[in-house]
Amino acid sequence: MALCVSRFGASLAFMVHAGALPATLRAWGMSGGEAGAIQTAFNFGYALSLVVSSWCADSLGAKRVFLWSSWASAAAGLAFALFARSPDSALWLFGLLGLTQGGTYAPSIMLVAQGVAANRRGAAVGWLLAAGSLGYFASIALAAALSDAIGYEAAFVACGLGPLLAALVVGPGLRHRPNRVIGARGLRLRDAFAFLADRRSILLTAGYTAHAWELLGMWAWLPAFLTATLATAVTNTSGTGSGGAVASGLWIAGAIHLSGALSSLTMGRASDRLGRRAVLVAMGAMGTVCSVTIGWMGALPVWLILPVAALYGFAALGDSPVLSTAMTEATPPDRLGAALAVRSILGFGAGGVAPLAVGLVLDHVPPGSGGAGWGWGFALLGVGGGMATLCAALLSSDRPASSSVSRPHHRS
């Protein structure tokens, strides 16, 4: 429970840039490339922190790294809230926030893997990621509503307090949880890549990399696409724009993360029953179809676009708990942190570029091209979804995990 509440609080700051994007585009006069670069800075910082925290968790203990990162994220969240007032300052401060957030994610998965039986682990990781998705929804909802009604500054402050809430909750919640150290200190770089000698680990790592490209690009730009689409629909209907319509668009975009929370809860449990491979193939294929179609739907009625957006959110996040759970099962416990570190730098390295890539597509496609910029931008994300589906299909058929749970030797 403490881990889930903490994941919710930390995630409140995760989507603040996407939620407040229409307001900051107007206030700062940003181009699509500049806006995408701010999210990319966060993603690269997040990738680096995932690598360092995962690596250190083997030799220092997941709990210790998790608590340190929680307080660092609280400080960075407040710094962004108070001092991000231009594209340049937002880029550096949002990047700093990403640099602290990774340590609140991978170590939490390791804490789950250390104490939950394999036949329930998919569901447990699903609960953890669902709490994060609820935080993403709240982040977009708060940022959209406050930036439209008061200003983006208020949105930054409200969402920036989330990591502080997480740090205050998780300390007492984990007081009686042991700090397990299962890896050797001073792990050699060659040993860290040893898990890639296994074919299943290679496919899971490649699939995660492709999945991250699609997911992080979608998270960054789908709220802005829905906002633009709904604002156009309101203008065509009433002849005037509406600030309330913009806020409504981002509230509905937040529903993407509610569907993501539902997918984390259901797909993690489904993989416990049906096997990891079947769920990964289904979610990857569904996400790919959504990526290559939704950007071309801007001229269609809103009641057709929104269900596809919700399905997109469901599919793009549905394989996250399954990929993470499968990695904990394919990797020896004393190498799990190193495996997550390698996976993180590859996945979030690729995913970090995705928002910038979509922004550059939007900048270079002529405005009068009938929404082709959105269509090609999201189709570019679909390449990642297709590769993730292929990697999942190449996995060997698996049966539901056994009920055993490893209890490795540890020292506190």
From TrEMBL:
Signal peptide, first to last residue: 1-18
Segments passing through the bilayer: 38-58, 65-84, 90-113, 125-144, 150-170, 242-266, 278-297, 303-324, 336-362, 374-395
Keyword set includes Signal: yes
A Pfam match: MFS_1
Keywords in alphabetical order: Cell membrane, Membrane, Signal, Transmembrane, Transmembrane helix
Predominant place of localization: membrane
Gene3D superfamilies reported for this sequence: MFS general substrate transporter like domains
Gene Ontology terms for molecular function: transmembrane transporter activity
Keyword Membrane: yes
Domain Major facilitator superfamily (MFS) profile: start-end pairs: 1-400
Protein name from the UniProt record: MFS transporter
